[in-house]
Here is the input.
Amino acid sequence: MTADISLIRSSFAAVQPHSSQVTEYFYDHLFTHNPGVRPLFAAHLDEQRDRLWAALGALVANLENTDTLTGMLQNLGRRHAGYGALAEHYPAVGTSLIAALRHCAGDAWTPAVEESWTAVYGVISSTMVAAGEAAQS
Here is the structure.
């Protein structure tokens, strides 16, 4: 499975006007389906939603800049490990991210878009997990 960067960018552009809906749906989905991760987050999520959206935007903007992207993901992985995030949390986050994007993208969401986001999230999660585990050892 490979990511089509143009599909990632066009689908992200389609959901940009709905950023608050995307992040709200993401956290609702994550906590509904994985209540055990809720304690890893602050009680009030407004700032966290903003950080999530900013991180997604930065990632999408740097998809072709491998060094910058890898550095960003490694920093995120180390920080998340410090918050208690474990490798087994990442699949749930990916599922919720895809669900939120799919929900808010409307007609811009296609099987090819989902395949691309799934591939990109695989790289995101594996890079973050590796950095988090390295920081913990």
In short: The chain has a mean pLDDT of 95. Residues 13 and 105 are 9 Å apart (CA to CA).
